Amino acid sequence: MRTRRSPVVALRSYVSGSWQAPADDGVPLPDAVTGEEVARISTAGIDRAAALDHGRRVGGPALRELTFHQRAALLKALASALREHREELYALSARTGATLNDSRVDIDGGIGTLFGYSSKGRRELPNSTVLAEGALEPLSKEGTFLGQHVCTPLHGVAVQINAFNFPMWGPLEKFAPAFIAGMPSLIKPASQTAYLTVRLVELIVESGILPEGSVQLLTGDAGDLLDHLTEQDLVAFTGSASTAQLLRTHPTIVGRSVRFNAEADSLNVSVLGPDAASGTPEFDLFVKQLVAEMTSKAGQKCTAIRRALVPEALADDVTEAVRERLGRIVVGNPANADVRMGALASLDQREEVRRSLKALRDAGRVVFGDPDTVEAVDADPERGAFISPVLLRADDPSRAEPHEVEAFGPVSTLMPYRDAAHAVELAARGRGSLAGSVVTADDGFAREVVLGMAPWHGRVLVLNAGNAKESTGHGSPLPALVHGGPGRAGGGEELGGIRGVLHHMQRTAVQAGPDTLAAITGQWVTGARRSTGDAHPFRKHLEDLRIGDTVVAGPRTVTLEDIEHFAEFTGDTFYAHMDEEAAAANPFFDGRVAHGYLVVSFAAGLFVSPEPGPVLANYGLENLRFLTPTYPGDELTVTLTAKQIIPREGGDHGEVRWDTDVTNQDGASVAKYDVLTLVAKRPTA
User: Is the pLDDT of residue 5 over 90?
Assistant: First the structure.
């Protein structure tokens, strides 16, 4: 008796608060390994304008009610929830042609980005809905008129158009900074691998962790999506340079000045230093890295090495070493444990790679691999989108093709260079790249090449035996570092820690008086009102503290005996503290002066409330500056003001930043700095 297979259904979109099926059967999406139909895809009947409106009306307000820390806590909870489903996601990822290691890069990398941005949001942003960015700018002589840059989330939707090669990491690396910023996302995955992104969003929705409207999914073509954008929306695109050019000139994007960020594929370069002869660790690292970048995700990485530049004298050695290592790569079904490279994402993609290879072969010869034939383990190499790794060698690096044509697959071209200047010149011919690398133990060569390449690259790795063990590799973008590049690479920038968050916010210069600025930013600023009540601020729990709460303590006279005792006790017998004649000869002093840290210590003794209480610990000082010398006989007074209060979500304490101003008997500031403390919340019953 034959079993009837379940019919393949069209992937749904999650828009306007519900899962919606398309109005037609859609087009088939084949398994990259077997050619079997995995799903069908279409956006017929999906109201894209309504989806954008839902994000603006429902998702945006819900997110903007939350503080940065509250959003970060939700992001962490989501990452933890997704981590429990990795095995299911790995299995689905294999149908895209990915090996287990490829899937880990995509899936674990995406989840790791959520964790990374959760940590950044909690540690580097205030527990507030507004970010005061940078230093306060004095705009008047008396200090009654000030300027401050503030960042607030855009009141639109972050439309995220993703590439097929990373169906999990791609959406999550765009979603995470947008969410921390307080901006809802509409994810549009590439069709070839959209079934994995759909399952990702299903898990997000099923978790119930995020506010409704903060994430939506448009499965299929964009249609008229861009027609409905407004000035408050944003588009983040990953894909080909030609598509990026088409999108950035869309009439609505141009006419409404919609923010547009592109991260496009590029002809990334790796340079082997002349010191790295055969037998050196750096030679082996270069070969290993090149082969890894060619075969990871079957070369379908926007950061993969497309151009390998080697010293003329080492070209033959490198060619043979790379050939030998490529010869050990097993291509085939990712379900086989011996397979090290899976399939391309689709048969169409394979044909695109073959077309690009025809152009590249005009400038160089194939020294490994046959683009038309491959042995695929446990798979039919024709039904699956398999292709052999292909290494070319272009002995004339002045030819245009290797610097202009990208085969988006397991393809790289070896080219010789004469010297560092020539390597830089060749690297620049890619007209802008996402990533470059220099493999050398020669720091002088590294400096010359890195600084020469930098204007053309978004990220550059210097690899050698000293850092190889802990290096994350040429092709791995990291949440804390920028991902993007100039020129052909799209001219955009993603990730980069808090920089990525700020792309989703409007920076506004606010000019006002001190009290008004304090009210707007939630931070006390110089010149704003202070409150000196009966209770010492250190006796107040976190909930009872207010910005502007102040204690003024002193004066305390600094004596010569104090200075000499501090010098003897600490060992700091610098001449300015101990030798009157030498100190007087110093152009900055009129004689012996007190140690700066003696001033700070005396200030702490003045403002502290020593009995046990809500203040749990002092965990640091920031922005310390010594402004006026302190001489024997000077009298010190300290003014300590609660500047910023940061509750910790779900914790029993928070952080308080105190503005500290130590003045002398003439009212001149001797030292200014911020004291950082941990302060307990009121105990719960």
Answer: no
